[in-house]
Amino acid sequence: MITRVPTRVATCLLAVTAVFGCAATPAPAERSAPPTQSAEAPRPAVPVHSFEVVRAYPHDAAAFTQGLVYRDGFLYESTGLEGQSTLRKLEIETGRVVQRRAVAPDIFAEGLTIWGNTLVQLTWQHRMAFVYALTTFAPQSTLTYDGEGWGLTHDGTRLILSDGSAVLRFLDPASGRETGRVPVTDRGRPVVDLNELEFVRGSVLANVWHTDRIAVIDPATGNVTAWLDLTGLRPASTRQDGEAVLNGIAYDEARDRLFVTGKRWPTLFEITVRPPLNAARGTTAR
User: Fold this and answer.
1) Which residues, 6 or more positions from 106, have their beta carbon under 8 angstroms from its beta carbon?
2) CATH number of the domain at 17-21+45-279, please?
3) CB under 8 Å to 194, separation ≥6 — which residues?
4) Is the dihedral of CA 153, 157, 162, 168 positive or negative?
5) What is the reported pLDDT for 260?
6) DSSP label of 236
7) Phi and psi dihedrals of 203, rounded to 5?
8) What are phi and psi of 17, to 5 degrees?
9) Is the dihedral of CA 192, 194, 200, 202 positive or negative?
10) What is the C-alpha separation between 35 and 41, in angstroms, rounded?
């Protein structure tokens, strides 16, 4: 996001999915152990995963990517900036834009998700989302919501929205009405600047704005269960400017493929996630 100032699993994953594992369930306290006044024991560190590039694909270097989603062999992308915001359908292999719709010039478009046979595209500060037909991009309706819109995904029942804060908000897909929210924390510390979102096998993956890190979040509790560190995927020295940051996550569930890109990045990456090193044993955790 350019110049804006934020005012802002328990389910297992597999190759993307197997590496994250499930959040451990704390063992029940001994019945005979009385409460104590001692300080709480330090919580174990959240696993940090690295990555390998499976394949690199061309991507429009002028696209200010705000949302990315996969369906039936194509990527759908929302690009931002006033006067430049668009909705696009992309060929993965070539990066070619095969379908495009411009957004009104006063609108700064944001996150994107597919809900049924529609595309839902957020706006940053207009407090509304545009709903389009998936096949034709024809406008269907609008949804209204409070506050800013940054990232958008869904869990099959409700839309999940980020607004740049340390909160995930749950919205009714028909009305946009907020039905709940959960604070996002890493061992009790708020994780702010949550941006582009993707729902992957029960977890919410959230890119953290102006970082190369993706949080893996249990949407039931808001706990960060793992981190994906993409440092080095596209070094800062190769980026156009300070706003050309990581921002774009899409998942192909049928083939277990994870795609990532960034704002004004000339490349889309298909990556696989590595488990972190087990410091105690000096080996890779399994």
Assistant:
1) 82
2) 2.120.10.30
3) 150, 151, 162, 163, 164, 165, 166, 167, 168, 184, 206, 207, 208, 209, 215
4) negative
5) 97
6) G
7) -115, 155
8) -80, -40
9) positive
10) 13
* Over residues 261-276, mean pLDDT: 91
One-character DSSP codes across 154-188: E-SSSEEEE-SSSEEEEE-TTT--EEEEEE-EETT
Q: Which of residues 29 and 194 earns the better pLDDT score?
A: 194
How far apart are alpha carbons 189 and 59 in whole angstroms? 35
For the ranges 34-38, 68-72, 230-234, the maximum mean pLDDT occurs at 68-72
Task: Identify the three-state secondary structure at position 237.
Answer: helix
Task: Name the residue with tokens 């152990």.
Answer: 33
In angstroms, the CA 110 to CA 103 distance is 11
Mean pLDDT of 157-182: 96
The Cα 117–Cα 134 span in angstroms is 5
**Nearest Cα to 71, choosing from 261, 252, 256?**
252
Domain map of the chain by residue range? 17-21+45-279
pTM for the full predicted model: 0.83
Which amino acid, 105? P
